[in-house]
């Protein structure tokens, strides 16, 4: 058998027709015999899924599969999307079923060319996925460990490669110098005090009775009195023993004996341990040394609101008064049990209750409705209508207001726009428009192109520069805003409309008209919408344009051997003759054979006919029809049309969607269509450009001519800009539109506020705020004026607040009273927030007694001398006085300021005043400057008694609290510590240097005094000092060494220099002349007589001895200076 097939032209997203023929191969040499012909029409999209088609013909049954596959590397429903997998230097990706690039594992980037390094790789890079090649100076699996300086022993790099930051108490370049040997090794024993003298060295200061390098040698251990708490010490070999006093224990008798360990206290008493004693704290009802005695619990009057107290063993019983309960009769019994009606709020009292009624109701249980219209509140003939908790007035014509008290003036406020004047015309108004404006309220720009003298902006055509001289150097192109299926029509105001082609609709002709809306396909056919037409895909057994024709399965006649064919829907029946049987009259012995029932059905012979028992998902007389269609699950999204194609389906998407299931919205803003900074709004098969200021048109390429309306007056020249214009005024004119005359200042505008007119620069008070009129603009301070009283009283003259139906008037007289007695006071609160301390009209966390101070919240604490205050002063009265201070009104024009007051908990003479703002512009680490100024000026007025309030004059103390965390101060504090340490180090170094100098001078002074003492001893020769100075040593006579007349200063002998000491050794005369107490000058040497030989000999001997002693003293000073220098170097290393 030979199979031949042909198809019609296949249009993507549209239908196809497949004709399949089966020919007898044995007869092909004679022209062939056609066995069966199958024709199938449908819709199919490119894909890998096979669509199985079953054809049950009169002669043979054909089962075949079809599919449409794009060429390699091409995708989407039109096979135009190219994607070729690659794995090389330019990319590492595969392609998914939609043709999108899918990066291989470990790659990223637009073309998957960038390797993904190992997770957590900090200071490294990679050429292959999962690698982490460390940068220079870093190590570790994730390159997150810095490499320290080579040889760094007790330090780390601390995030900076090749550095060595020493650990605590280690120093040196390689952190190998122990700067805290004492703290690390604790070498000193027996309580010795260890001192770090240099890196890796120490010195122990031992207690009396101990010695040795580490104080390990005990000489008289008890001399240091090591035993504590009165213990006696006994010296032993190598130590001591403490004999403890009663109640103490331990090696040093430092621990006391716990006498409570035996639990001596009875009946739950608490044992308190003492020194060689204990004490029992007994629970209520028990007494005695061990809590063994029952006490009288009623002696302390524990019952609060009771008739009597009954003493019991280990306890007591209170007999409470009416309305009280609890062990001590201190709990008020709740008498509120839903007695209050009409939404009234019940307030519990002692053995009673009070109903706080909703507005409009009164009575003990709020059962009586108040008649609001009985007082005739409506004026000017208005009709009063009663309502719950209120009333409404039906006004006569010409009146308005809540009580119809206002005579209506339709021109106040002025309804006319753009500077037009308003005229009252018999209950109506008329707006007299200025030039260039029109309309009832002068809201429309007057058209200037009515005469055709000006050029209309064409929103559909864009003028571009061109080199064609015949077109004037300008090329006109279409903006293409109406797409491929519409024509753009320009409007004079810069707008446009789209005239759509047949079959399309929408603002941009983006929507295909649904021609299948009326369901034209009959007998279960599927309607495929086209452009101004449709196509019906018919079910099995039907054909025709509307699937209204029953296909004739009897043509050609499938019945053999003279059988008669009867046509059915998608089936046929053969009436056989001459004892033929079977579906097509081809059987003799039975109605059934293996091909009678299709798709696995079981055939049953019934004699004259047969029946097929079909499996699931199949039906029909021979199980030839599928009962379950692929489209039954509605797999297509976003209005896509599902078409069954064999055992599969195809989705026909609406315009604007794509994908196998029509799940993807096509991005109509790609490529970007909007010019001049316009913003593209993507829609379903459309886009819209939101133009920047000064531009218009569908793609924002039209620069709006702001001069088209001729805004410049009095002969001025208008220059168009981007979103603006500029007027070049003629001489003598000025202003934005040249409407002003040079030298003439226009009169400022007045202001209207609450139906009152205020002239320019007028200031008036409104509640607690101050308002100012500035050239027609009203600017008021923004101080919250506090809650209003909602409880009436004959002595209250201020206006009362009427609570809304969802609010209740909560009585807070006691809470608000500062100096009792006070008039009744309450405020409206939401029913579900009756216990909320915050008034209902504000939202702030800056609340007295519960505030968290911050950048917009500050607290002022006022302490009063109550005896100097008049009675009846309330908290809100003081708070209102503070709100009305003029200094606050001057500061609160830019943001709201809230002032809340409350008596401080536990201090009835103290008032907490919380000032807060709603500022959001200041930094979180800075106090709001406006709030800071308000607090400063407010406290200044109160503390200096500058207010006229008698209540505030009784303030005796003012305290201000603010909490502000300043990041700058933090950073400064962070730098301040090292700066302070550096300063302390420098000061310490200077102190050490000063001590060194003082020590050195002291040593010199000691040496000088010793020399003087030795010199005084020379007076035993019965020669005075005066004569000794007149003699020269003859050993140096005739030389310049002994006869010098220069006077040597004492400072020369204070220098630590061995060379000078050698010179002094050679010239003892200079040593004598350098004494500060020599009464004569050097000239005395010339006038003195020669001394005797004996005297000269003694002088030389004594001078040599003195010189030797001086040299020894100087050497000792040199050794001391070297020791001190070494100490300084070790101290500096410790400080580092």
TrEMBL record:
The chain crosses the membrane at residues 975-1000. It is found in: Apical cell membrane; Membrane. It is a single-pass type I membrane protein. Disulfide bonds join 70-79, 83-95, 103-112, 206-215, 244-253, 282-291, 320-329, 336-346, 357-366, 374-384, 395-404, 433-442, 500-509, 538-547, 576-585, 614-623, 653-662, 691-700, 729-738. GO terms for molecular function: calcium ion binding; Notch binding; receptor ligand activity. Its main location: membrane. PANTHER family: CRUMBS FAMILY MEMBER. This is Delta-like protein. It comes from Magallana gigas (Pacific oyster).
